[in-house]
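Box 4.2: Ligand-aware structure prediction
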Amino acid sequence: MPYQVIIPAAGQGKRMGAGKNKLLVELNDIPLLIHTLRVFEQDEECTGIILAIHPQDMYEFEALLKKHKIMKVENIVFGGKERQHSIYNALKTVVGGGVILVHDAARPFIKKEHIHRLVDAATKSGAAIIGVPAKDTMKKVLDGKVLETIERSSLWAVQTPQAFRMSTLLKAYELAERENFLGTDDASLVERLSIPIMMVEGDYDNIKLTTQEDLFFAEAILKKYT
Ligand code: CTP
Ligand code: MG
């Protein structure tokens, strides 16, 4: 099933502490941004990429797209203060309906097979997200004191991509904007419309590179596949 994808890349990568946007950090001599974009460039079902970037990265990112022959980027928009603002800026420029994905530029290890399962689920039901069952025992803690243990079998760690019918995602973002709601993922905005969201099981390789330590995990994951 065809889809378009919004890729938020407009952060600053502060926790990575690389002295530049973490998306410019290289793995196997290729910037993280390009690793992620290549997945969609090489997926025949992906019909277009909308990229949100920080103005300070514009020249460098545009040069990288050219150098690595990323041809599917249809539009580049400037991001906002928070991830949600960046995505909304991108969303407002998307042309056409169908299924739209949102995928963090900082998750380079998403597999085509999982994208397709997600798109199929969203095409059928309207909204679907990818995640993995929690491995650790989870407890609710307040001020350093354990309040309770949360039944693990119902807990999932949520990743991106997240997939929605275009009209649904737009409605969710408009409502969040009107009500000043800031969520930590896209689904939390859609949940406020009381629309059912399907969970698709992905895998633990689909990490988000956040801190320096994640670069070591990333090297290990890359080794598995090269
Ligand atoms: N992002 C964005 N616009 C923002 C903030 C984040 O488009 N205002 C993007 C990032 O570029 C990244 C994704 O959202 O691809 C997930 O964000 P995160 O991992 O937090 O990246 P950064 O915000 O760049 O990192 P940090 O929070 O450590 O500064
Ligand atoms: Mg951030």
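In the box above, the bound molecule is cytidine-5'-triphosphate. The helical segments are 32-41, 58-67, 83-91, 112-125, 166-178, 187-191, 212-225.
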